[in-house]
Structure formats: structure tokens, C-alpha cells
Amino acid sequence: MTSFSYAIATDIQFGEGASRQLAHHLLRLGFGRRLLLVTDAGLMEAGIPQSVAASLQESGFMPQLFTQVQPNPRDEDCLIGADAFLRFRADAVIAIGGGSAMDTAKAIALLGRQGGTPAEYADGHRTYGATAPIACLPTTAGTGSEVTRSAVITETKSHRKITLKHERLRPALAVLDPLLTRSLPPAITAATGVDALVHALEGYTCTVTQPVSQAFGAAAMPLIYRALPKAYRQPDDLAARSDMLLGSLLAGLCFGSSDVAAVHCLAEALGSLYDTPHGLANAVFLLPVLRYNASACGSQYANVARHMGVADAKLSDGDAVAALLDALGAWLHDLSIPTLSRLPEVRREDDERLVALALANGSTASNPRPLAADDYRAILEEAYRM
Ligand code: NAD
């Protein structure tokens, strides 16, 4: 008998121009007037936070910008952000950006109200108290953080990526406007989009998946698979941008209530050691992990191939898995995603650290085929050979 639970308290608003209604939704949901807008330098260059701030001001809110967010966001910036939150006497936190801005905003909403450091929560030394209300305006189509209950932060002193995970970190409001993703450069579009596909694929096939996650994953995969090459080649293709944003939302709803697996464990290890952009780090491990897992979850991978439309129902499971691997190889190639050996920052002498970090990641247990250190070593070898 199937049994599962699924709950999500995020109010989701999706559509072209949806961000223009931000003030209306903040009022409707009872957010206070003093808003800390959390964003980064790339977004400031694109001019997006400035126009959101101006329109909030026109509607009677008091926005204040906090722009000190880095890719693979740092705990020390979260602490500075929490200080800014307190000094401004903010009522709520609004993230404008990709996963880095959204995760920093979640941490600020927690630390600004409860104190402490991100590691104290992630390591279980502090309990999660009430956060300030959080709203997210994603500007990448990748992480799904606008609907998840986690925040991935890098601890500066140890350089490990830690995950804060609690229902209190789930945003109260997610406003998804494809217009905000049009300025995303092609290489970042490609890398963040691969992250979204991996969320759907791992959320759909991991050991803790469940029917609602699988339904979201099945809907997300074909959208992302088809739309990403279009958005990559034609950045102002609004239909492709919209499909990508929807795909990444659905993928977030998929893995947000199941888990990710070995691709993400290796990707987070790589990000910890070298600051490799998260989507790129996922992309270089995708095929080697799929090959490793295929013997354990061939029929699920065959279903993934059918959902993505790269294998028809008549193909055997084995042939459908082969078609999936071929299709994803060609897809990554079309997106000009480099292989692991082409990443200049990666050093072979760090292999054992990578393996240890991946193994220590809690999501290793959710991988559909069990993994020991030697299995991670073999996957790493294959990633280098590609
Ligand atoms: P990101 O937020 O680091 O952004 C990448 C770059 O793109 C930045 O330089 C940013 O300025 C730029 N950018 C973003 N939107 C833009 C736009 N519209 N126009 C121009 N430039 C733009 O990238 P990301 O992949 O969205 O986030 C990665 C982070 O999210 C990682 O730290 C990862 O671990 C985390 N993550 C979190 C979750 C979660 O559920 N909390 C899930 C997956 C990943």
C-alpha cells in the first residue's frame, strides 16, 4: 500500500509580468512595510533589483537593498546580512536572484530573528525558531529554492557546503516572472538549466521519492529537456524562458519533498572545493552517475526516457536507457557544457577529498544504488575520461 505525505505552504504566483504585482501580494499576505531586498552584483548590473525597489516604494513599502551575495553563498555574508536586517529593523526579506540570493535571504531571515551562525543550525546545535517572512523572485531557472525548505551555504573557514533544512525556511511567497530571466547570459542559462533537470531526475528516482514528487518530476523533465536548448540559443525567446521557469519550479516541487542523490553529492563537493558554479558541477557528473545507477533503476530510467520523449513505449527498458544516455550526451554537448577534465580549477590530488565530501553528504543515502568510497572513485574516474 502506498503511503506518503506532501505539504507546501508557499503561495506561488507565475506569469509574464507577475513581478509587477509583488506589492499587491505582499500586502495580501501581510508582509510588513520594511523590506530587506537580498540580491547580488550580477543582478544589480542587470538593473532588476533597482526597478523592483522603485515599484515597491511607489506602493508605500520601505525597501533597502543588501547586495553582498556571492555565488555558492558564504556564511560570513549571511551574518553581515543578518546585521543589516537588524539595523534596518526589517519586517521581512525579499530575495531577487538565483539560488545564491534566495539561500542567503533564507539564512538572513533566520539569523536576523534567532541569531547564531548557519553551521550551528546545519550541525544541529541550535533549533530552528521562527524566521522573518520570506518572498522569492527567482531570476535563474535552476534551483527551485523559491519553493524548497533548504538553504545551501558555504562555511568559509572549512569551505564545506552545509545545508540548513527546515519547514520554517520555506518562502511564504514565490513570484515567478519569466521576464526576469531574459538577461541571464547563455552559459549561466545552460548550467542552471541542467541543475533543474537533475533535480527532476534525482527527485523522481531517489530512494525516498513518492507519488507527488514523481508527478512533478515527470512534468518537469520534458519541459526542461525541450526548452533549455532554445533559451540557450535565443535568450529572448520568452516561451522558452517561461517553460524553463515552470520546469525548474516543478523540479523544485519534485526534489523538495523527496531528495537529490549522487550527482548532487559530487556537485556540492566540487562546489565546496573550487567554487565551481553549481549547475556546471552537476552537469559534469550527470552521465557517469546515470551509468553507475542504471543497473539498479533501469525501469525508472526507462520511464524518464519516455517522459522526456527520447524513447517510445515500444522500446525495451534497456534500449530506452541507452537512448536516454545518448540523448543527454548530445544535449549537454549542444549546451557547450565542458567536461570535468576541462575545468581549470580541478586538481587530481584533491580526488580523495572530493570522495570524502560526497560520501559525507546526507543525500548519498538517497541514491538509487548504494555507494561506497570506491564507487565514487570509479564515477570520478569516468567523469575525467569523458
Ligand atoms: P546563482 O544564484 O549563483 O547565480 C549565478 C550568476 O548568475 C550570478 O552571478 C548572478 O548575478 C547571475 N544572474 C542570476 N540571474 C540573472 C539574470 N536574470 N540576469 C543576469 N545575471 C543573472 O546561481 P544558481 O544556480 O541559481 O544558484 C546556485 C546556488 O543555489 C548554489 O549555492 C546551490 O548550492 C544552491 N541551490 C540551492 C537549492 C535549494 O533548494 N536551496 C537547490 C539547488 C541549488
Automatic annotation (TrEMBL):
Domain Alcohol dehydrogenase iron-type/glycerol dehydrogenase GldA: 10-178
Superkingdom: Bacteria
A Pfam family this chain is assigned to: Fe-ADH
Keyword Oxidoreductase: yes
Domain Fe-containing alcohol dehydrogenase-like C-terminal: 189-384
Coiled coil (residue ranges): none
InterPro entries from the UniProt entry: ADH_Fe/GldA (IPR001670), ADH_Fe_C (IPR056798), ADH_Fe_CS (IPR018211), Alcohol_dehydrogenase_Fe (IPR039697)
Alphabetically ordered keywords of this record: NAD, Oxidoreductase
GO MF: alcohol dehydrogenase (NAD+) activity; metal ion binding
Protein family (similarity comment): Belongs to the iron-containing alcohol dehydrogenase family.
Descriptive protein name: Alcohol dehydrogenase
